[in-house]
Amino acid sequence: MDIYSFLPSELEEIIAGMGYEPYRARQLFSGLHRGGNPYKFGLSKKLVDELLQRYEFRPVEIIRSLKASDGTEKFLFKLSGGNLIEGVLMRYSYGNTLCVSTQVGCAMGCAFCASTIGGMVRHLTAGEIAAEVISVNALRREGEGRSVTNVVLMGSGEPLHNYDNTVKFLRIVSHELGINISLRNISLSTCGLADKIYRFSDENLPVTLSLSLHSPFDEVRRKIMPVAKRYTVAETVEALKYYFEKTGRRGIIEYAMIKGVNVSAKDAAELKRVLRGLNCHINLIMLNEVKESDLFPPGMAEALRFKRMLAAEGLSATIRKSKGAEIEGACGQLRRRYIEQN
Ligand code: SAH
């Protein structure tokens, strides 16, 4: 097990069980999550030696990084068992957002997404997800890179499918003794596991919740997102409403524009109908072309027309500026190419 998967209370039990003073746990947690050499956390050498023997201290390693001209950086992380995952650091005026992966691959099967092509290999542990953030933060200390102020769970994987580890990761990354990123600065994106959205609403973790909707019509959504066979759009939007009532947060609807699939006037009118009563903003994204799929983005003129149609329906929508296209910013692309080449 990796050492980053434990909360301070759990580290206390571990340390007490090893015969040391439990209060050392806070020091250990802080040191681990703020990064650095474990022998410099102020703990006895004997305790650190024993911990290093029992637990994995380097669950992820950055093996490749690519920088785009807009400052976006893409990282390929290697997990201790050899599996590969990706992360992307984006620079905004308000801070630096790291997009993290929650699974190796993905089981959801969305037709337009590169992450799911080889299926799901395994869930990441809470500590592995945290270690993505910690390893990017560590670059800054070595003089490259910048520290992470915001996190989006929008890399490979479906966070609510890896429910327990995702929830634990959120408690770890927002812990004041550690990385200490405010929940307000964290977004979780889901393809719409409605039962898990209800459960998540009661965790007291008020992050920004994004729903990958991509079409307001059940029959279209079922063709591009298998999850839609389990939950209708209406059921999913109900679950979101519950989340927003519980947390007081405003929601985000992710909408990848796909030529000939979801950018007509009928789509705009139906979106207005299905989103009625939901306090949300629509993020329009140009579909990133994935060579394994036969779906394409609309032209810019058509995308702008769709945005105007949404505005005419009274919906709040913006086209999200694409970042890092030249470094294969889209989900799973860098990992796939690396696997193909090696
Ligand atoms: N599993 C989660 C989070 C990961 S994907 C989810 O489904 O929300 C993050 C976002 O990128 C989702 O909205 C997903 O639908 C979208 N996405 C995946 N492949 C894409 C592509 N080729 N072009 C544009 N958006 C894509």
Summarize, please.
The protein has 11 helices and 12 strands.
Would you write up a description of this structure?
It is built from eleven helices and twelve strands. Strand 10 (251-257), helix 9 and strand 11 (280-286) form a beta-alpha-beta unit. A ten-stranded mixed sheet has the order 1-2-3-4-7-8-9-10-11-12. The model has no long low-confidence stretch (mean pLDDT 93). 35% of the residues lie in helices and 20% in strands. The chain has two domains: 1-57; 58-341, TIM Barrel. It is an alpha/beta fold. The chain is globular. The protein has helices spanning 8-17, 24-34, 45-54, 126-141, 163-173, 194-201, 218-224, 233-247, 265-274, 300-312, 333-341; strands spanning 60-67, 73-79, 84-92, 95-99, 103-105, 120-123, 150-153, 186-190, 208-212, 251-257, 280-286, 317-319. The structure holds S-adenosyl-L-homocysteine. S-adenosyl-L-homocysteine binds at residues 110, 112-113, 154, 158, 189-191, 212, 254, 256, 285, 287-288, 290, 330-331.
